[in-house]
Amino acid sequence: MVNATLIKELKKIVGNEYVMHHADELLVFQYDGSTDKAIPDVVVFPKTALEISSIITIANRYDQYIIPRGAGTGLSGGAVPMYGGIQLVLTRMNSILSIDLENRLALVEPGVVNLDLSKYVAHMGLFYAPDPSSQISCTIGGNIAENSGGPHCLKYGVTTNHVFACEIVTENGEIIWLGDKFRNVPGYDLLSSFVGSEGMMGIATKIIVNLLPIPESVKTHLASFATIEQASFAVSTVISSGLIPGAIEMMDKLTIEAVENVVKCGYPDTAGAVLLIEVDGDNEEVNEQSKQIMDICNNLECQDITVAASLEERNALWRGRKGALGALGSLAPNYFLVDGVVPRTKLPETLRKIDTISNKIGLPIANVFHAGDGNLHPCILFDEQKTGMSERVLEAGGEILQACVDVGGTLTGEHGVGFEKKEFMYKVFSNSDLDQMLRLKSSFAPNGRFNPGKVFPGGPKCFDMATYNTFTK
Amino acid sequence: MVSVDNDLDKYIIDGISPAKTVSPKSPESLADLLRIASENQWRVVPFGFGQMMCIGSISTGYDIALDLTEMPKYIQHNSEDLTVTCSNTVSYQELSDKLKEKNQWLPLDSPRIDSQSIGALLACNLPSPFNASFGYLRDYALGMKTATPFGKVTKSGGTVVKNVTGFDLTRLHIGALGTLGIITEASFKIIPMPEKHSFIKIVNTNIAHLLDVNSQIYPALGSVGVSELLIKDTKLGELYLHYVGTERIVNQKLLEMKTVLFDHEINASVEEIDDSDWCKIRDFGWTDSDKGIVLLRINCVPSDTENIINQINRLVPNYDQQEFETLSSFKRGVIKCKLKSQNIKDIQTLILNIRDAVRAFNGYTVVEKSQIPHKKDIDIWGYLPESFTLMKKIKSEFDPFNIMNIGRFIGGI
Predict the structure, then answer these.
(1) Strand order in the sheet with A86-89
(2) Which residue out of B34, B108, B163, B335 would a mutagenesis test of the A interface target, given it has the greatest number of A Cβ atoms within 10 Å?
(3) Which parts of B41-130 fold into alpha helices (H)?
(4) How far apart are CA B161 and CA B329, in angstroms?
(5) Quick one: pLDDT at residue A408?
(6) Which residue in A285, A415, A436 is closest to B148 by CB distance?
């Protein structure tokens, strides 16, 4: 628990109005986008790296945890303060500090909203490629913590492929840079280790990201198939043909129904599944690729394939995809979103397994996902008010992840492990594997001050010391 | 596991010979060996095909050469998923041949790549011209297995193309020169083989003109082209271009390039060259005829490349050089300098002066390849990044008994 002296010291650093500690003020910070909940002891809104450094110094003195938070859109409980402590909300640090046009780099603060950066540089003919579905509100700092992806990372890569450098505040309050404005800085690649470390190794306070030229032309296809197996096979065929589209997204019948209930973007109600396939590049390249995609889908006897004829039509198709999760609310009071990855060729097999799990638990599971990457997002629809339902749903989620792992896949493609999946880590990694990760964490943050109780199985000190000590000298 | 005491000569690195060589036959026996070495504080150096052993500072302890060539060799190519997993002992050439059967490719072209093992490629992580159009090795690595000094074979990442499960140790080991563990297996995403490659050489004695040509062509390269500017003795210049993609795109880019030359009234010899000529550029400083040279690698912000070249060209005439060449990538911000002189002091002073000049632009200068006297007198890694303290902590966490390839990495790690 925090005491009045600590709060007074925090207020002295950031100002009275940027410290929250009354119970009613804290309630909103108990959530992120996941099902996990926990209330922080105090919430602080710093403006600079120096303020964060001072806050960390105080946290060390008072032996308090620090839990960084961006927009709170995370889906694995990453920003939920499971063991209390000081919640560090970085949304005031939301400036785009500079654009280096010549080298196509942007220097931004962690609280900058993902989509705002692309909007800011659009008139320069540039965009920031990682585009999580929550890009309208998620922050770049949060994206760094989770190494976020998005529909278009099929072609462009995830966050780690676009971050060149980060200024971070370490556990002892030191402010240092990892990486530089160019790749191949001599020494260990600490930047890559930091990206995706889920807020456990330091707080990013400035970030240099790479910007890309906006493609000359974009074509978005809507292909409908009678069954989800057929659609999955089309995905494998497109990928193995050598095409690398900007995005291939799949929605099953249940999702289509929900989207058409709410968003009404023209997805066919007779389809068992639809694919959104987008290609971008120069005009001729896009035309060539579009023809190839049409040929593949037609050869596989798709029900129909159309190309968005205008920007409005394209936006409508994407509005359906990006609004799909929200639309599922029209089918059930709650959904539990699973994030697993399988090799693309294993999509049909895994989707069949998910269907079996759905039948077994007697709950519908909607599938809306990044098919081109094999990144599944099964959504288990349920009502949490019904007794024992949450437990059944969590168990089914575990079974789905096991099905992913069984075919050579993994636990998370873009949402992170967070609190939600940490006990599943043994499905993929051994004690020795986790020990190596823990050694990395301990190099950055030996006292476990940052975001405790995430990623590693066990309590706030991770599975830390029990296993870790057996390997030390 | 076989231990051999004779035939140590082939394991000599920078004049230092190990006391023993050991050839583990499996990742598990390699890990076991590392555990025993840790317990006894025997200092080990991993040794693959031995092509790149001159990289790094002089070892501060070399008891055992770990000859990895008898480790299992395998390639698991999942062509429909566009992924491949292979053991560390597979050569890049073998991997490429396998991928080529399905018209796929891991797009790398670092020096001597055809004769390097995958383990060495990952451990050394030398930059390459293709980085400009295809990205870096780090962008293709999906996961790996490593043998650790704790006697375990550990895994990070996986074999799927998207994965944020656990911390990213894969990229930590890339370029770590085997100082944290020994890579025994790696998985990569791969790409379809491009329809066409085209290599072009443009020769013009006027360096200013060539810089101008490069600056005109450079923006139009897009993601399909690479330009490398070779300057010999600060006077003669050759601009090498590599275009890749569909036949149509490559032909279009070639036409654009010729238009630039015509529009700027640049009188230059333009010729299409073949693969082997491009390999000379790729292997700059690493070819058989490059014995006795010192090779510097400069990394800088791309827009500073031309200024740094000019600074270096101003510095060089003050020193006695038998041979001086630079190869520069404006797109990546990489400059390689080849120096040769009988005068050891002269060459060392030049290296330090180049390093200072580059530092003024916040760039780094690493001696990628040199002879023993220079390694003794100069810190080949140069200025330390401000995160170096963290690097030392990582080394002590991953290799607490300090046995892994010691003293050869940055800052004496």
Answers:
(1) A19-20, A42-44, A86-89, A66-69
(2) B163
(3) 92-100, 118-124
(4) 29
(5) 97
(6) A436
- Concatenate the DSSP letters of all residues of A159-200 into one string: GGGTEEEEEEE-TTS-EEEEE-SSS--SS--HHHHHTTSTTS
Of A182, A417, A434, the CB nearest to B333: A182
Asked whether residue A342 is domain-assigned, the answer is yes
Q: What's the confidence (pLDDT) of residue A254?
A: 96
Residue A417 lies in a domain: no
**Model confidence, pTM:** 0.96
Q: Are residues A80 and A101 in the same domain?
A: no
Contacts of B135 in chain A (CB under 8 A): 157, 161
Is A186–B160 a contact, with Cβ atoms under 8 angstroms apart?
no
What is the rounded average pLDDT of the residues A155-170? 97
Determine the angle formed by the axes of helices B344-359 and B305-315, rounding to 10 degrees: 150
A105 with A78, same domain: the answer is no
Number of compact structural domains in chain A: 5
- Please name the residue of chain A whose CA is at the shortest distance from the CA of residue B388: A187
Evaluate if residue B255 carries a pLDDT over 80: yes
The verdict on A56 and A35 lying in the same domain is yes
Query: Chain-centre distance of CA B41, in angstroms?
Result: 30
Is B400 a residue whose pLDDT tops 90? yes
pLDDT of res. A64: 97
The CATH number of the domain where A234 resides is what?
3.30.70.3450
User: If you average pLDDT over every residue of chain B, what do you get?
Assistant: 93
Are A273 and A253 contacting, i.e. CB atoms less than 8 angstroms apart? yes
Name which of B382, B390, B393, B384 is nearest B353 in CA terms: B382
| In a shared domain, residues A362 and A382 | yes
Contact between residue B359 and residue B286 where contact means Cβ atoms under 8 Å apart: no
Inter-chain residue contact A415 with B393, CB threshold 8 Å: no
Q: Are A8 and A81 found together in one domain?
A: yes
pLDDT averaged over chain A?
94
Mean pLDDT of the A324-337 span: 92
Measured in whole angstroms, the distance separating CA B103 from the mean position of its chain's CA atoms is: 25
Q: Are residues A223 and A307 in the same domain?
A: yes
Residue in chain A closest to B401 (alpha carbons) equals A473
Size of interface A-B (CB pairs under 8 A): 234
Best of A158, A188, A421, A428 to mutate (most B CBs within 10 Å, chain B)? A188
State ipTM.
Answer: 0.96
Span B77-113, pLDDT tens digits: 999 999 999 999 999 999 999 999 999 999 999 999 9
Q: Looking at this protein, which amino acid is placed at residue B410?
A: I
pLDDT tops 90 at residue A282? no
Q: In this structure, what CATH number is given to the domain that contains residue A101?
A: 3.30.465.10
Is A371 found in the same domain as A456? no
Pick from A213, A229, A249: which residue ends a domain? Answer: A213
Residue A340, domain CATH: 3.30.70.2740
Judged against a pLDDT cut of 70, whether residue B4 lies above it is answered with: no
The pLDDT of residue A467: 45
Q: How far is B399 from chain A (nearest CA, A)?
A: 10
Between B171 and A473, the higher pLDDT residue: B171
- Residue B86 structure tokens: 């292979």
Q: Which tens digit of pLDDT belongs to each residue from A114-150?
A: 999 999 999 999 999 999 989 999 999 999 999 999 9
Report the CATH number that the domain containing residue A58 is assigned in CATH. 3.30.43.10
CA distance A17 to chain B (A): 34
A234/A255 same-domain check: yes
B81 → closest Cβ in A181, A345, A441: A345
For residue A187, give the nearest of B152, B388, B398 by CB distance: B388
Of B155, B158, B192, the CB nearest to A242: B192
Name the domain boundary from A184, A213, A242. A213
Residue A196 within a domain: yes
Q: What are B103-156's pLDDT values in tens digits?
A: 999 999 999 998 999 999 999 999 999 998 899 999 999 999 999 999 999 999
**With an 8 Å Cβ cutoff, are B82 and A160 in contact?**
no
- Cβ of B249 within 8 Å of Cβ of A414? The answer is no
Whether A412 is in a domain gets the answer no
Give CA torsion, residues B107, B238, B347, B341, to 10 deg: 110
In this complex, do A288 and B246 lie within 8 Å of one another by their Cβ atoms?
yes
Residues of chain B contacting residue A432, judged by C-beta atoms under 8 Å apart: 148, 150, 152-154
> E-strand spans in B68-132?
75-78, 83-87, 104-105
Structural domain of residue A167, as residue ranges? 96-213
